[in-house]
């Protein structure tokens, strides 16, 4: 375990399984394969302090269960889970793969606990997820550390700062990887490979080719190391692709976040209780369409479609404590015109927009954690839930920009996580996590579901690769 002195020292070892990537899916595959007796090499491109890919920024795992389990309350059964997925993907999913991920998630949670992951009850601001999502104690970084500790105990060999530049394939079979580390390059052989190296979202040029010039204004919430080299290499080698390069997990995040690696703390959860305007001071979408865990992931694309890819959420004092606090303090003022000026917005237009919204709000019961039907009347777009006037100072404002977590263009796999090509399936190439998530996430996103896909298919790929080797 750890980083060997040189890549050359790895060439003489007969590796059973080479795992490309170092996040949740890769670690699940490594643990399963090693427990099955395979000799496992894991190649993580990031330096050790940044190991774990996007997984270190996660906070929960969406899990099917037929009754209370661990920190999860009540029940969340297959049909409801699948219905929730269909709502956000609008049916753009591979149903057999989706149902496999959902069903298998139930057995994953106790497996995660056995391998050192600890969970905690939902916190204030996330109570609506207490039935559907199990939250990691210490967040994704703690999960990643737990899995690396488990892998070390099992004897998995890990190499950090190891960039895989090419997957060597002959016919339908993998035989080696080309690896670069500092100024050293090596070809390392293996009997099977699991690809778990993420999407291409950190390659801004690739994003811009897919989306157009607007993508240059996107912020990348996750790791800067997921640049899609392995994905591109596999597609160039004849692997079948799945998913649309313009589809991704993109959320509205704080516009002051860094270009890369800001993580989950940059997310803003205030939208359902706000009025959201673009740089011209105009509303453009229903802020109260559904509960935030089901709809938050559409807002990245909505903001991306606005001028300069920016929007602004405005709330009043009534709503200031109804959502998870932001990492950066909001702009604050006692009158709307002053707040608009602080955010660089046309004050008169914003005042007009807020006045029209307030006039359209009607009396009714307000319930912040459930669909309450408290809707506007007579304006477009309508706000269909949680529509209360923005009338109680102080007023607060946040800038919003699209924050991309991961892209959905990926490798096509079957239910054993084996990668497809034009002739059928590769004999000994598996994929797990974000690099194949587009098979299930054709569009949209469901909170915690990326971790579900990574855990289910990582475990599956590790087991299947080990069975092939054995």
Automatic annotation (TrEMBL):
GO molecular function terms listed in the Swiss-Prot or TrEMBL record: oxidoreductase activity
InterPro entries tied to this protein: CobZ (IPR012831), FAD-dep_OxRdtase_2_FAD-bd (IPR003953), FAD-oxidoreductase_2 (IPR050315), FAD/NAD-bd_sf (IPR036188), Succ_DH/fumarate_Rdtase_cat_sf (IPR027477)
Superkingdom in the source lineage: Bacteria
SUPFAM superfamilies attached to this UniProt entry: FAD/NAD(P)-binding domain (SSF51905), Succinate dehydrogenase/fumarate reductase flavoprotein, catalytic domain (SSF56425)
Cofactor section: FAD
Transmembrane stretches, start-end: none
NCBIfam families: CobZ_N-term, PRK08274.1
PANTHER family membership: FAD-DEPENDENT OXIDOREDUCTASE 2 FAD BINDING DOMAIN-CONTAINING PROTEIN (PTHR43400:SF7), FUMARATE REDUCTASE (PTHR43400)
Protein name stated in the entry: Tricarballylate dehydrogenase
Lineage: Bacteria, Pseudomonadati, Pseudomonadota, Alphaproteobacteria, Hyphomicrobiales
């Amino acid at each position: 375990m750890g980083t060997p002195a040189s890549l050359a020292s790895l060439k003489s070892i007969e590796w059973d399984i080479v795992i490309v990537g170092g996040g949740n899916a890769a670690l699940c595959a490594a643990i399963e394969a090693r427990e099955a007796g395979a000799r496992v090499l894991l190649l993580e491109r990031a330096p050790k302090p940044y190991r774990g890919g996007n997984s270190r920024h996660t906070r929960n795992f969406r899990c099917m269960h037929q009754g209370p389990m661990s920190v999860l309350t009540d029940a969340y059964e297959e049909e409801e889970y699948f219905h929730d997925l269909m709502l956000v993907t609008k049916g753009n999913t591979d149903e057999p793969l989706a149902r496999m991920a959902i069903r298998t998630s139930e057995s994953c949670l106790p497996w995660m606990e056995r391998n050192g992951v600890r969970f905690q009850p939902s916190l204030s601001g996330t109570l609506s997820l207490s039935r559907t999502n199990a939250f990691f104690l210490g967040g994704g970084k703690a999960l990643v550390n737990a899995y690396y500790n488990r892998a070390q105990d099992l004897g998995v060999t890990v190499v950090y700062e190891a960039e895989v530049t090419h997957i060597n394939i002959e016919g339908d079979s993998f035989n080696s990887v080309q690896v670069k580390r500092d100024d050293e390059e090596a070809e390392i052989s293996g009997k099977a490979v699991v690809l778990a190296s993420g999407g291409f979202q950190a390659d801004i040029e690739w994003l811009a080719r897919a989306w157009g010039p607007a993508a240059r204004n996107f912020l990348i919430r996750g790791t800067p190391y997921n640049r899609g080299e392995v994905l591109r290499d596999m597609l160039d080698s004849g692997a079948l692709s799945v998913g649309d390069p313009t589809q991704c997990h993109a959320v509205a995040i704080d516009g002051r976040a860094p270009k890369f690696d800001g993580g989950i703390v940059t997310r803003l959860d205030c939208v359902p209780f706000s009025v959201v305007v673009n740089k011209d001071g105009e509303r453009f979408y229903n802020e109260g369409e559904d509960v935030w865990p089901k709809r938050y992931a559409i807002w990245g694309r909505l903001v991306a479609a606005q001028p300069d890819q920016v929007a602004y959420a405005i709330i009043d004092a009534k709503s200031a404590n109804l959502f998870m606090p932001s990492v950066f303090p909001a702009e604050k003022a006692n009158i709307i015109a002053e707040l608009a000026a602080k955010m660089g917005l046309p004050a008169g237009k914003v005042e007009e927009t807020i006045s029209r919204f307030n006039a359209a709000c009607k009396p009714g019961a307000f319930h912040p954690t459930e669909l309450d039907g408290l809707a506007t009347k007579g304006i477009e777009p309508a706000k269909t839930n949680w529509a209360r006037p923005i009338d109680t100072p102080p007023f607060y404002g946040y800038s919003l920009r699209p924050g991309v977590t991961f892209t959905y263009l990926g490798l096509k796999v079957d239910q054993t996580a084996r990668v497809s090509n034009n002739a059928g399936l590769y004999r000994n190439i598996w994929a797990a996590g974000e690099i194949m998530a587009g098979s299930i996430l054709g569009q949209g996103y469901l909170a915690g579901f990326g971790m579900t896909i990574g855990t289910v298919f990582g475990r599956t790929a590790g087991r299947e690769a080990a069975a092939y080797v054995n």
